[in-house]
Amino acid sequence: MSLFKKKEEEETAETAAPETQAAPVVEAPAAPPETEEVPEEKPKRQPREKPQRQPREKKEFKPIDLGRENLILLIALVVLGCITLVGVLYDDELFGAITDFDPGSLSNKYLDWINQQIPHIVRTAQILFVASLLFIALKLLASRIGDKTSFRTAVKLMVSFARYAIFIVAIIFILSAWGVDTRTLLISAGILGLIIGLGAQSLIADIIAGMFIVFDGEYKVGDVIVVNSWRGTVQEIGIRTTKIMDTGGNIKYINNSSISEVVNKSQRVSLISCILSIPYEDNLVEDELKIQEYLPKIRERQKVFTEGPFYKGVEAMSASSVDLNFQATCAEEDYFVARRALNREIYIMANEIGISIPFNQLDVHMVETKNEDTTLSARDLKKADVFVRQQQAASKDIEQDNE
Question: Would you say 342 and 274 are in contact if contact means Cβ atoms under 8 Å apart?
């Protein structure tokens, strides 16, 4: 019985085992160990080096070089200004009805005379100071205006008039300050001016001509003109004369009344030309095609030309060459520079495109003498004479019609 029970227990245990057997546990893969993120270290900024301050250079004080004459004029102007200020502050004491400078103020006659002249001296200093300031203002006005403006020419002429006017008015006021009767003087000056005007007609003509030149605008300061075959730049138009300077720096003064014909070259661009001679052996058409290709190179290189250069064609057929004409335009002040530049470029072009420039040559031909009798018979001589007379008679009417 025990054996049988043991077998039953084993069978029941085997049948119950698969029911109670647990499902196999699948182990999950182990997670990798967590690593701590280490922040990246930023590169440390290096401290900026402070620029070393260089010691400032001490500016040396350079005294203004006024020149001896300008220094004397400046001192004189300061002295006149001080006297003028004193005269303004003490106007009543100096120029009043009753002053300490009246005759008899001092017992000594010499000191009394010197005392009487002090108001006249102060008034003269005031007039000279004002006239000097006006002269300086006129000079500054003339220097502030551009050199190449038409307004500058009129300003220069007006400044010239104003200088004479200020000088004359200052003299009249100074004489009046010293007690001279200026009305009588002006009447006398009018009569004297009439007499001088009759004798100085050329001076008056110069002044009037200068006014017409300026206001008609025939030319102005900075223009290039030709007057009486003299070519130059106008430097100044004065009351009497016009100052012209040529390219060599020579200055010529021409009276305004003698300027009858003027060629103003600054109003329009100037024309320059160059002649290139080619030999008769060359093919003209081939040379012209080469010139057509080369001319744009000259225009790119030379900016002194306002237009061109242009090929104008055959100018002449000389004894030993065919002359080709090239032209360009330029500003008048660049005339000589542009003309030399054009000659140079045309010569370079001739060398590069293979044009040989002909030159005068002398060919000597040796004639061989032959021992033949070259004398003509009397019949041949008579025949030639008859031919000449017939031709003269036939062309006689032609000569008479053209005489």
Answer: yes
Return the CATH number of 270-353, one of 2.60.120.10, 3.40.50.300, 3.30.70.100, 3.40.50.150. Answer: 3.30.70.100
| Whether 325 contacts 342, CB under 8 Å | no
Give the max Cα distance, the chain: 197
The DSSP element (H or E) to which 329 belongs, if any, is strand 322-330
What gap in Å lies between CA 276 and CA 343, rounded to an integer?
9
Q: Which among 268, 262, 271 has a CA at the least distance from the CA of 244?
A: 262
pTM: 0.41
Task: Report whether pLDDT(154) > 50.
Answer: yes
| CATH topology for the 216-264 domain | SH3 type barrels. (2.30.30)
Render 241-252 in DSSP notation, one character per residue: EEEEE-TTS-EE
Tokens 């301050």 -> residue: 53
> How would residue 21 be classed by pLDDT, with cut points 50, 70 and 90?
very low
Per the listing, tokens 């007379």 go with 389
Domain extents in the chain = 68-202, 216-264, 270-353
Range scoring the smallest mean pLDDT among 34-43, 234-243, 345-354, 384-393? 34-43
Residue with structure tokens 């004193």?
86
**Residue 394 pLDDT exceeds 70:** yes
Instruction: Write down the pLDDT at residue 233.
Output: 85
The amino acid present at 322, given as its one-letter code, is: V
Instruction: State the Cα–Cα distance between residues 18 and 190, nearest whole angstrom.
Output: 159
CB-based contact 131:76 (threshold 8 Å): no
* Cross-strand bridge partners of residue 253: 243
Q: Indicate whether 396 pLDDT > 80.
A: no
- Distance CA(185)–CA(301), nearest Å, equals 70
Neighbours of 314 (CB within 10 A): 12
